[in-house]
Prior knowledge:
Elements: H1 4-11, H2 15-23, H3 30-43, H4 49-54, E1 61-66, H5 74-89, E2 93-98, H6 103-115, E3 120-124, H7 130-139, E4 144-147, E5 158-161, H8 163-176, E6 182-186, H9 192-207, E7 217-219, H10 224-237, E8 243-246, H11 249-261, E9 271-273, H12 279-283, E10 290-292, H13 295-307, E11 320-321, E12 324-326, H14 335-338
Parallel strand pairs: 1-2, 1-3, 3-4, 4-5, 5-11, 6-7, 6-8, 8-9
Antiparallel strand pairs: 10-12
Amino acid sequence: MVTILDVARKAGVSKATVSRALNGKVVVSEEVKARIFQAIEETGYRPNLLARKLATSKSNSVGLVITNGLYNGPFFSAMIYQAATCSEDHQRQLILADGKHSEEDERNAINFLLELRCEAIMIYPKYLSVDELDDIIDRNSVPIVVINRELKRNRSNSVFVDHHRCSRQMVEHLLAQGHRTIAFVAGGEGSPTGDSRLAGYRDALKDAGITPDESLIVRGSWSTESGYEAGCALLKQRRDMTCILAANDDMAIGVTKAMTDHGFQVPADISVAGFDDSIIGRYFTPTLTTVHIPMDEMISDAVRILLSPHSDPENAPLTLHEGTLIIRESVAAPKALIG
């Protein structure tokens, strides 16, 4: 990366002279100015005007990195709303940076917020590993909190839920209702949350003495449409399942629509459940059995940690949040047991 020092060396002047030439506040001779701008052109240096402006003042902003693949849907809309509200409560402006489609994109989004001199940064990662996130925190003096991922070295800089445990809790509830043939609609590839929920489903079945049947596992992409397609795919290959658990509420709603379109009643013929406790599931018919993920509280904790840091990180408040099973109308005992 080309710096102002590179320009100064190329032009044979001091950094201060380059800065004065760029600011235009102090007279610099035309001959020296010409050398400086020639050096800028040759080195490809791009002055960070915003960073220079903020160098002597606070930005009063909080950054949030989240990939655009997560924007779509009520759960993440509510999360961004909470982040904006909490930032406003602390008299800060929220700046959203798109993590896009790769580890490099997420790193670029974080660097973008750092260059904007954000006072603090929240990261809701999809692609970056725990080790990479720990390294980013270790390298930077700007306060950074990671949401929905447990860090190894900087645990007090993460706010998270044990999704594996939440999934086990849900499957144990379904088993207690008498379900034994439980299908699972997994989330998109490469999602740590989705992988944890799928692993929890498998482990809960194994603990109940049931070997997970891979033909009962199909993959969606978190959207309602993908849930509908997954429900249709399951019906094509298996008709003996009594319950379908989707890795989020949006897909569970799509699954429910697929069931009704094929002549099945939920939950009379087949039960459906999800995760997240999205607001739409509370008003859907039938209301959706789910696991409440306390995202509002997680965002509030993240902003609190960033803007009111604990003086002793080793004794900072616990940032592990608990998911809560929410029992509603979409799950009932299998017909065979009712009969």
